[in-house]
Amino acid sequence: MAVRVGVLGATGAVGQRLIQLLDPHPEFEIAALTASESSAGKTYRQAAKWRANSPIPDDVASMTVSATDPDEVPSDVDLLFSSLPSSVGETVEPGFCEAGYVVSSNSSNGRMDDDIPLVIPEVNADHIDLLEVQRDERGWDGAMVKNPNCSTITFVPTLAALEEYGLETVHVATLQAVSGAGYDGVTSMEIIDNAIPHIGSEEDKLETESKKLLGSFDGAELTLNDVEVGASCNRIPTIDGHLENVFVETAEELSPAEAAEAMREYPSADLHSSPDQLIEVFEDPERPQPRLDRTLGNGMSISAGGIRESTFGLQYNCLAHNTMRGAAGASVLNGELLLENGYL
Amino acid sequence: MAVRVGVLGATGAVGQRLIQLLDPHPEFEIAALTASESSAGKTYRQAAKWRANSPIPDDVASMTVSATDPDEVPSDVDLLFSSLPSSVGETVEPGFCEAGYVVSSNSSNGRMDDDIPLVIPEVNADHIDLLEVQRDERGWDGAMVKNPNCSTITFVPTLAALEEYGLETVHVATLQAVSGAGYDGVTSMEIIDNAIPHIGSEEDKLETESKKLLGSFDGAELTLNDVEVGASCNRIPTIDGHLENVFVETAEELSPAEAAEAMREYPSADLHSSPDQLIEVFEDPERPQPRLDRTLGNGMSISAGGIRESTFGLQYNCLAHNTMRGAAGASVLNGELLLENGYL
Amino acid sequence: MAVRVGVLGATGAVGQRLIQLLDPHPEFEIAALTASESSAGKTYRQAAKWRANSPIPDDVASMTVSATDPDEVPSDVDLLFSSLPSSVGETVEPGFCEAGYVVSSNSSNGRMDDDIPLVIPEVNADHIDLLEVQRDERGWDGAMVKNPNCSTITFVPTLAALEEYGLETVHVATLQAVSGAGYDGVTSMEIIDNAIPHIGSEEDKLETESKKLLGSFDGAELTLNDVEVGASCNRIPTIDGHLENVFVETAEELSPAEAAEAMREYPSADLHSSPDQLIEVFEDPERPQPRLDRTLGNGMSISAGGIRESTFGLQYNCLAHNTMRGAAGASVLNGELLLENGYL
Amino acid sequence: MAVRVGVLGATGAVGQRLIQLLDPHPEFEIAALTASESSAGKTYRQAAKWRANSPIPDDVASMTVSATDPDEVPSDVDLLFSSLPSSVGETVEPGFCEAGYVVSSNSSNGRMDDDIPLVIPEVNADHIDLLEVQRDERGWDGAMVKNPNCSTITFVPTLAALEEYGLETVHVATLQAVSGAGYDGVTSMEIIDNAIPHIGSEEDKLETESKKLLGSFDGAELTLNDVEVGASCNRIPTIDGHLENVFVETAEELSPAEAAEAMREYPSADLHSSPDQLIEVFEDPERPQPRLDRTLGNGMSISAGGIRESTFGLQYNCLAHNTMRGAAGASVLNGELLLENGYL
């Protein structure tokens, strides 16, 4: 029997992706949609400016949107997917956890909190048990798990694959698609025939979230990984798919061939939305490319290529679909992990 | 009195830019245009598919194009600007030098040869005297000077400004405009809504040419700079302007403020095409941007911004107009240097 | 049992689309692939520069490509899909028909010939029987059916839906995607931040092919439709999907509501690749849009919107996926029609 | 001595263009800048998010911005250029006219009012004397002249050139640049790899403003032109430059050669910002193109091409720079006309 789930912030860009993923999902059943006060009471069709390239699922279109308030969500809903703006998430998400809901959140607030698991199931599924600590500390009946930022998700699985060689320093330059900023985040005047070499607090997210994702959890406490990451973020005129150039120095020597093998053999997870092959490695140095490779594994695979020796260490490129693997798909995957681990 | 000059490969994209720069130039007078055999005998208007956003200068339009052969170029032409494909340049450029022509070349062949000066006048003007060695060794009446690749020109002046702090290692990721590949170099199907994380032998050019440009010349021999550069090159859907993310580690400690000051105070050259301010430094971390900043200093300035501490060392972004500062303008500037130094 | 089919010009952009459509097709089985002499003898993986965003089907990848010559195609292949450049098609297609092959061709050569059926199955399936006349006249064992140009296919179904009101004059302005010119057809320098108000002989195709498609066939002769079409064609920076603005004057008065109803009710065909709804009509005047609506009906639907009264007559917009509905899908659909009508 | 002028709505996209044009203008001197209340009291550098590709003129940067209120503008300012949002313009512009200011406005409010001249100086300069009627009727000391919408300005001069042949019906399809919607008007998610076949009330503007511009003024009353215009407007991923496809039917027969000649010989005006050649006519059917031709005549020329016989009448393409000729430049030109005609 499917778990009854809700979407907080259901009308936004990531909210729409969540609905596309959850509607046909075998383990979940959409039972609640929330948005801002101004949308409350409307049908989803009225409330959402739907921009996906497939129609709104009929049953979802006719659902009534409620305000983003624990009192407005049916109590038989077990799991909430949150894609609220972080300023809103910060204010309302804890209330849902207190009220007993389990929240899988894509919002950036609280990601680095000591007792909030930040999880990519194929990378650090064991961190999910930080929820025990969280419940102890916060006295919540519910729980909160976060997925990292889209640009972090793109390169961390490739680092995880190389971790046995001892990660020391990483430089990463990102070429990020406009959808990462939300539907209205980047104007056309800003980006056509252009590139912007800075994205809000993005560089900080790559630098800190990666240390937490690659950290170790001993059942009581999370220890950050020692890797030092320096990031430089760029917005480019691409719709979907973040491409990243990575320079990595490891403690042990590592050849391009060994790196490719480590990535190819890095295991995926046994969850509904995990791709068969987590990291697709290309031999062609011109790949991966956003438009050609972002939909690999239903948009849930990472792809990598251009692995070569660099002046010190190794360099390579990687890519992921930022609103699938990097946002909506990441939250759904964490929902699946919560279910598998008995948190629902 | 103006020096009579010619353009080798006058119908190509860089050739067209050269004509735009040379036609109004006070020191030079266009006296010869060459192209492939199939264009020989045609007027320039007939031979060139002109794509600039200003009309062909009338006097140039009616000039007759000759084959790219020393016998076809009037002997009273003193200086030739070459923007031939490197495979052609390799074959024909030496013949022009032997025949007594001085060649300022944008073609990549021979750039790393021991006795060919590779010059950015504001950075290493003194390397021009390598021409004495060249003439001794090759027995040429003419001479050959090269300018570096467009992606190299973009970041080397910023490194030169920081050199007193002791350059150790550099990682650079480039976001390059399509015009860098020539008019037909990148198809629209390849690049719209996309990015390509690899450009032919571009990475190697950044890594090696920078060592030569920053090297020292003692009047007899050129010593390469010790800096270790690792480059990762990307093509993005931008018409003009290469943007680069630089991570640099120096021997001496260097704060962002010191780096900004060093760049701002780095002197320009006293040549006609040199901009008043060589490196424009932005405080706004979102700048420089290709569409907004590529035409600074008539397309001959470098711009920089986003200077901040990185996990080890410093990081910043820089930008230059790839067909102006990075190609045609670079060759013209070297022509001006040749004139000033008495090589014409 | 599946019909054995071949693809002439299998390595090109449309050829790759054909393979994507034919590989999983229940009625067809790929048994032959041809390309230019230089590809003959190679495996398809070696011969094709595959650019689709799904991998080459494994069984196809290992097939050996042969030259585009009737002697090189197995005789048990019944149906050939041709996406040859028209200059090549003109030379080689008749030889295949003579040799007994039935050819469903996307190439533009011969489309307006009196005895060659030009067919969109949902619009003029009855024209297929012009093949009887063709065989009589040409003495072919095989046969040749053509689909129209991609820009023609986009608007003709909407005109067909309005035909009962008496089509008199039509003005159509097209906004065409770059994929319509083939992979290398439009360079990025030509089209980024730009539009080109002319496409080869495209306007003529819209003006003449529409008259043939909407013409009537009495079993012996085809009579062209009287509609007068004036077309203006533009290339814009879009990957896939041709958008067209149509102004139509009809003999009988026609309200926007009647036009919308006529389009919605215009029947689809009962063929495997025909969409359930041939023409999707939007109420939102901002739709259809290429990126949002080109994949409707697996890329085989036409979409329309913005229907309103114009100064004389009616105006509306329509859209179709140019390499699916407008090229590869159109040829496959004609193949299905040939099968259903007993021509295989 | 230069006329002291002000800019209403100086921080917006058109306001910035106005400043770029007015700062070096020999006849005008910027003496007042207004913006919304939130900007009042700030320097222009603080108030404006400057996005032009040349720096803010120094003297303008340090000017203090005032509220858009007649009491806040120095009374020795004679002429105001207005680029306010139309809803704001509607509210505040009449107050400025009442207070004695002459306003040259780019805002769409009031353009079709009987006593407000809508002027393109090269087309209908004589309409300016409608100001006498306006002052009589409204009792204003000041006055108000409007320039048409950018998409109207693009094609009306070409129609004016053909008017002697008797304009009957016109169909026009526009391909409009994103800058026409203002800096934040079109998001990148809406337009990359896409086109939008509808722009607010744009079609209505083309259809009605053209009748007024081509109308006749007898000194007392304005009579609209009889031409019937049907317009279809599209937004495409281009930064600047509106391209339009025109189908025109005239009373008298008109060959493409006659139309080209009529356009080439259509006179420009003897005003500072009028280009030498008002309409540049291309023989190459692939021109005009936005990126190549928008800056002709400093962005104040119209260009045309692709003139050919259509099924009934003639068809051709035309292009103008939408924020120069179509907005800021149009208002400045009207200011010059006001000065020449003694209205200042």
From TrEMBL, chains A, B, C, D:
Per UniProt, residues of the Semialdehyde dehydrogenase NAD-binding domain are: 4-131
**SUPFAM superfamilies hit by this protein:** Glyceraldehyde-3-phosphate dehydrogenase-like, C-terminal domain (SSF55347), NAD(P)-binding Rossmann-fold domains (SSF51735)
Say which enzyme class the record assigns. Answer: oxidoreductase
Question: What Gene Ontology terms describe what this protein does at the molecular function level?
Answer: aspartate-semialdehyde dehydrogenase activity; NAD binding; NADP binding; protein dimerization activity
- Keyword flag Plastid: no
Q: Kindly name one Pfam family recorded for this protein.
A: Semialdhyde_dhC
The lineage's top-level taxon is Archaea
- InterPro entries reported in the protein's UniProt record: ASADH-related, Asp_semi-ald_DH_pep-lack, NAD(P)-bd_dom_sf, Semialdehyde_DH_NAD-bd, Semialdhyde_DH_dimer_dom
Give the record's keywords alphabetically.
NADP, Oxidoreductase
GO biological process entries: methionine biosynthetic process; threonine biosynthetic process
Cited PANTHER family: ASPARTATE-SEMIALDEHYDE DEHYDROGENASE
Q: What family name appears in the similarity comment?
A: Belongs to the aspartate-semialdehyde dehydrogenase family.
From the Swiss-Prot or TrEMBL record, give the protein name: Aspartate-semialdehyde dehydrogenase
Query: What species was this sequence derived from?
Result: Natronorubrum bangense JCM 10635
Give the source lineage, highest ranks first: Archaea, Methanobacteriati, Methanobacteriota, Stenosarchaea group, Halobacteria
